[in-house]
Amino acid sequence: MDGVNTIDPNNVQVRRDGVRYQSFFIIPGPESDLYFHQNGVPHGTVTKIWYKSEGIGFDRRLYVYTPAGYEGGTQKYPVFYLLHGAGGDEDAWINMGRTAR
User: Fold this and answer.
1) Residue 93: phi, psi to the nearest 5?
2) Do residues 68 and 42 make contact, with C-beta atoms less than 8 angstroms apart?
3) Closest by alpha carbon to 99, among 64, 50, 62?
4) Helix (H, G, I), strand (E, B), or coil: what is residue 7?
5) If you average pLDDT over residues 2-13, what whole number do you get?
């Protein structure tokens, strides 16, 4: 707006890319179907956990995704570690990737 980057206050879809915030929207269609909540499909849970990092000396946040039924079950699951790379931050898989939808 007038040469200044700003988010749209009427759009709840906001992603953080490091220190920048950006509004986004998803256009419905075949290419974006997986970005929308699907009724009848079991959905997992995303939990945010803060932990003390001894290596860097301050608290850090991590996200843990567990599949539907995990909390009450006894089945063992493989672990998939996803380390964030260039661009975005740890919120990207939740906000842009819409992990638990």
Assistant:
1) -70, -25
2) yes
3) 64
4) coil
5) 86
Residue appearing with tokens 């929207």: 25
Helices (H) and strands (E) in the chain, counts: 1, 4
Which helix or strand (DSSP H or E) is residue 93 part of?
helix 92-95
Give the integer Cα–Cα distance in Å for 12 and 34. Answer: 19
Tens digits of residue pLDDT in 20-44? 788 888 889 998 887 887 788 888 8
Amino acid at 61: R
Phi and psi angles of residue 26, each rounded to the nearest 5 degrees, phi first:
-115, 125
Could you read off the pLDDT of 62-89 as tens digits, one per residue?
Answer: 888 898 889 888 999 998 887 766 666 7
Tell me which DSSP letter residue 95 carries.
Answer: H
Phi, psi of 30 (to 5 degrees): -60, -35
For the chain, state the CA radius of gyration.
17
